[in-house]
Every structure is written in structure tokens, then in C-alpha cells.
Amino acid sequence: MRINLAGPILLAAALVAAGCGGKGNADNGEAAGKDEEKGPAPVPVEVATLERGPIEQLLRFSTHLEAERAVEVRSEAARKVVELLAEEGHRVPRGQPLVRLEDEQQKVALTRARGREEQARREYERKDNLFAQKMVSEQELTQARYELEQAELALADARRELSYTIVRAPIAGTVTARHVRVGDTVAVGQHLFDLVDFDTLVALIYVPEKDLPAVGVGQEARLAPPAAPEQRFSGTIDRVAPVVDPKSGTVKVTVAVPFESGLRPGMFLEVELVTAVDPDALLVPKRALVPDGTQLAVWRLGADGTVERIWIEPLLEDREKVAVGAGLAPGDRVVVAGQAGLKPGAKVELVGIAGEPG
Fold first, then answer.
1. Which of 214, 348, 329 has its CA nearest to residue 272?
2. Which of 4, 17, 85, 241 could form a disulfide with 252 if both were Cys (CB 3.0 to 4.6 A apart)?
3. Which fold has domain 60-68+197-277?
């Protein structure tokens, strides 16, 4: 009698498989439970340690340097140029001759006018003596006085015409441009020279009305040409306009700039006004600030590796940091990178400390 074993064998195999499958499902459920207990992965962040230090609050402006006293020297007569007496770069006092024009006719005219004036004066003096002796009429004396006055006017005109042949510096300064050459025939009013007084260099800035209380005459201003940021110059507020421009809402402020090597009219400058100073403030990097509506917050790292949100009120600020009051203390660590998505109590993983090598 033969026994068919195929059925029992297949059943045993099915039971074994079912048993193995049940064990696997149990293991998977156990791992999922452990993952749920572990929670979300820590957020990688970079932090900075807070310290106390000095801070200055600044107002920053960009402008061009200019000279308040700068003139275009022009001809007052139509003459030929016979001699140049100044060149570009020459520093000249007020009244110094810059160019000489042809003057032969003017000298002759002056000599004639002087002779007529002397003759008219002698004639008047003679008539005056005769009038005192009642030997001439008052009408003759009056005519002599009139002729003397006309001769004096003609002499003054001749002197003025001769003076026009010497073009002089109207102010003390430096010749920055010459627009004429020897042999040129210039016209009345022709532009001959540019003259600039470098001692009157100023930087004009326009301060918003809200910042006006922090600005005053005599206040220091720092100047830096962007083309040479390593150079620093110091200026002083010389004038503050008494009115606010209604279109821009700003006030014109004039910063006096002492002439120093390298500074020239037309240069582009960055101007900084120091409006407040705190020598021992608690400083927070601006990278740590998180705006929330009209408020600012930072994420502070706790000893347990979680973060909490601290609301702050900036007191002063510069380019990189703000000074804050209550809420934080020296030695606190605040998040400066990786703030996106953080929530109170979130676990973080420290991947760097600002200011320290990685």
C-alpha cells in the first residue's frame, strides 16, 4: 500500500512560510515604533557666541566732492594774447596776473587821457583864481569844472581799458584748466581759465528728516573714496539747512573737507556720520536676526541642544551687528545660519561656530 506524502509536505511548507512571514511583520512594526519614538532628525545650524564690545550707529551717504569757491575766469576785452603768466596746477593768490593781452592802443589812450585831464585841471584852477578876483563869470567857472569832470571820467575809462589787458585771478586758488594759448585773439567774455580754491572743499549730503535730531554743526564726518577704501579722511559738518525739502523729505547738510593729498573736486565719496556710541554693548550679529512682522527675534541654543525664540529690540546698529538690551546675555549662543523652519524646542545639530575655524 503506497502512502501519498505530497499533501502533508506541502502543508508543512506553507505553515513554515506563514510562521516566517509573521515574524518578519512583527520585526517591521517594532522598527517603525522605534523611529516614531526617535522623532525628526536634528536641524544642522551654525551659531555665534555673544560678547560685549563697542558699537557706533552711523548714517551713510554717497556724494561727490566739490569746491564752494570755483570760478571761470573770462576776458573783459577783445584782444590778442601775448603772454601766459599761469599754468594748470599753479596755486595763485587773489589778484595775480594770469594772462597779458595786447595793450599798445590802451597805453596810448591812457597817455592822451592823462594829458587832457591835467590840462583841464590847470584850466579849472586858473578860472577858479580869476573867479575869486571877480575877473570871470560863474558860468565860465562852471564850464571849466564840467570839462575837468569829463576829463577825469575819460582818464578813468582809459585806465580801466588798460587794466582789461591784464587778466587777474579773482580769488586765491589753483588753476585747474587753461583754455587759451599765446597768439589767440579772445572775445569779450571768452572762457580763459578755471580756478578752484581747494581750501573750500565740501561734500553735500541730504539727511532724512527723521534723522535730523542726530545731526549738528561741528559733528565729525568720516569720508572714504570707494576707489581707495583703505584711505580715510575726516570732515566736519559746517552747515545744516534750516528748511526741509518737501519733495524729498531731506535736509541739505554741508560737510567741510580739509584739503589733503588725493582729494579733488568731483571725487565720489562715502560719507559716514556717527550719531550714537556705546562702548560696552551686548552685540548680536545681524545674520542671527529673524524678522516676524514688525518684530525681530533670534534663536538661542539651550544646553539640551534645543532652541528657543527670543524677541529682541535693537538699540544701536552698524553694518554687521546690533546692540540689544534685555533677553540675552554674554556667552549665549544664537543661530546665525539654518534658521529656516526652526520651531521652539526643535533639536539642532551644531555644524559650525561663527568666528572659529571649521
1. 214
2. 241
3. Elongation Factor Tu (Ef-tu); domain 3 (2.40.30)
Q: Quick one: average pLDDT of 137-156? A: 93
Burial pattern 45-83, b for ≥16 Cβ within 10 A else e, equals bbbbebeeeebbbbbebebebbbebbeebbbbbebebee
Helix (H) or strand (E) holding 33: helix 6-38
State the Cα–Cα distance between residues 199 and 207, nearest whole angstrom.
24
- C-alpha to C-alpha distance for 156 and 169, rounded to whole angstroms: 22
The domain 104-164 is placed in CATH, from the list 1.10.8, 1.10.287, 1.20.1260, 1.10.506, at 1.10.287
- What distance in Å separates the CA atoms of residue 210 and residue 250, rounded to the nearest whole number? 9
- Give the DSSP H or E segment for 276: strand 268-285
For 187-197, the pLDDT digits (tens) are 999 999 999 99
Domain range 74-99+168-196, CATH class: mainly beta
